[in-house]
Amino acid sequence: MASSVMRKVSVRSLASHKLRLVLTVFSVVLGTSFVAAALMFTSTVSSAFNAIFDSAARGVAVEVSAADPQSPGVPVDLVDKLRKDKDELGIDRLVENVGGPVTVADSAGKPIQTGGAPSIASAYLPPGRSIGDPNGDIVDGRAPTSEGEILINKDAADKAGLHVGSPTKVVLGTGISDPIDVTVVGLTDMPTSTGGFVGIAFDEATAKQYFSDGEYVSVVDMTARPGVSDAQLRERVHAALGDAKTVDELYDVRTGDQVREDQKAQVDQFLTIIQAVFLAFAAIGLLVGTFIIYNTFSMIVAQRNKELALLRAIGASRRDVSRSVLLEASIVGVIGGLIGLGLGIGIAAVMLAVTQAQGLPSSGLDIGVTAVIASLVVGVVVTMLSAWIPARRASRIPPVEAMRESTVEPGAGSLRTRTLVGAILGVLGVLALVVGGLGEGTGPALIVGLGALLAVVAVVLGAPALSQPVVGAFGSLFAKPFGTVGRLARTNAIRNPRRSAATAFALTLGLMLVVVIGTIGTSFKGTVNSEVDKGVTADFIVTATNNGPLPIGIADTIRSKVPDAGVVISQALATAKVDGQPFWMSSALGGSLNDVAVVHTEQGSLDVPGDGLAINASTARDQGWKLGDEVTLTAPTGDRVPVKITGVYEDSEVIGQRIVGEDAYKKLVPVETMRQAAPIWVKGRPGTDVDKLRSEIEDVTKQYLVVQIQDKEQFKNTVSSTIDQMLVTLYALLGLSLAIAVLGIVNTLALSVVERKKEIGMLRAIGMARAQVRRSIYLESTYIAVFGAVLGVVLGLAIAIPLIRTLAYWGLDGVVIPWSLIGITLVGSAVVGVVAALWPAVTAARTRALEAIVES
Fold first, then answer.
1. How many domains does the chain contain in total?
2. Is the pTM of this model over 0.85?
3. pLDDT tens digit string along 354-384?
4. Which residue of 486, 548, 608, 723 has the fewest C-beta atoms within 10 A of its own C-beta?
């Protein structure tokens, strides 16, 4: 019976305070909406890609490809062996495929921008010879039949303004350096045509000429004869290729189903990362919201002291009271979860529309049961946890004490115990931050992470005690210009330190993350700028416009056709394995990197001989190598290439970690996969005008479509803009927590105005003007907001500085504090305080003196 009565009381309490209900619900909505949006968006994109991959490798029973993407492919000798043993193995049809990366020009002669999607070429095989029609259906024109003709996917052609009969150019990502003049003879509807994907097809003879030296093919597809399953054929082919261990090291032998599942897994891994990022920021928003909900329920309980005491007096137990508060919280959680779900659907729909405009596939928004359940569960659980402490306090209020006039928040007494615990944790946190900041690498970074956690908890516990002196100091600064109103605002801001601290912490957490991310970003930019300024002596750096590979012949073209180019050195990328682990290197082709960069050598020389290897200090330390050691590199083809360490140099972001000799490079990298992945460094002859040199380089490289020429400042700006783009994305996501923080201040002030209605009425009665009432609320909000911002900045710097020191292991050189960002943050927090106070201040100013005084 009592439970039924308490349920009615809870429901009626919510219904009778609609404004309070709206403000409380809003604290849950944004966090839950991002949880729902993240789940729905990734589910929708995953479903779309899965549908596409279901059509990949159609009709293929078994596929053989190189295990290493840098490998030239499958040897023709093995293909001939499989073809010879077709009957014995159970192979029906066997098809060789060749292809590679390309850049295609649009109708204006500029490279088609793929947005990171592949741009590849393959050989066109007629339906009678192909398996599963990998080139799709020709929707316009015809298939290529001779050199100089291409088939292109319709999506890419439409984007590029190409049609049947359009002349264009193709640049191959191999040793073929000169752009190829081609004509579009057909458009195809490829099943894998997603995003900015560009797929072209040459006739078979031309494709083999461009992408094979006659010794390797890219992929081998097979179909099985009747009575032979895909799995059986796979086992037979695997055994026919040679020793099982060697085969597994060099080749992927998979059924068509395995090929599709592997492709799906790659996309799922990517989408999992995206989902994790969104959920992480949603978690931050929910954490911030938790403090706001806790604050809100603490104030609600304080305002209902008399009501709850009366219930206790007429027979309600402590359990009944706590359950009543928790029931209200669960109702708020359900409502907030449902609204958050609706908002999440809207956010996911907008995200999907943006990605579809970029060409990402979609078959409609997939809401799914998971997103619905997650929104409701998260909303209810977060709200219930946030309200648990206020509910527990409410149940402990003695009826006689609660019936007094005061509506002070229960439990708002001594802060001694929590402050002492906070101080101890703070000392431990600072100690961990200092110790971690003295080291480099993963271990010290984890110690810094522990210190950061302890520091955050210490701030949560110690903030109420800190709020009184800090906010009091702010109030003292504004007391003179604002007089009595300033002093009144100061008194209101520190009268309940728990409440002020909880309100400010929402802003503290968001700004702490902004400062940490901003400091790391500016430090990375500072490192790049410093490395380029100190380490680059070249006049120009030649790179690809889309961050893709440059044709390897570009360096030769600059070297032979630009008379004022004194030194032209290209860094070509190579990969191998050392003890089974990937090992990335570059090779300086055309000279010594000493001619274009300043690198401090610790041992030996940076002039690497053909069979030599120069390594940075970090590699030497990690591998335990020293000058003169011989290292065996395993090429993607399985060949073993011995090299001798001829130099150890200081870590340099300019030239990379390892430089291998040119002879070893040529053994490691097949001709078919040679491409210029790192910059081409160009230094003019003594006395050369750099503007003239740039013009000459532009003239001889413009035909290559993908070339961009940068001086040192432009190169630094390119790197900085990339970092800035990532920071803007992170800041935008962090805006969620800051938006919730603003709502938290609005919420707290609005409820505080209700709580102080009689007090405000008395002030109005003795002559306080409405403008003064508004001003006092503005100042109170500003004090709290600036207090939260200062805490966030201090905490952010305390975490960022030692964290960056640990990252020196990975090349980060020193801490660069973003003072402008910090200044904007502090000024912005004051603005936030005023904006957040607008509505509560207007509400307070409208308080009628007589009604407020006589209200019980």
1. 4
2. no
3. 766 655 556 677 787 888 888 888 788 878 8
4. 723
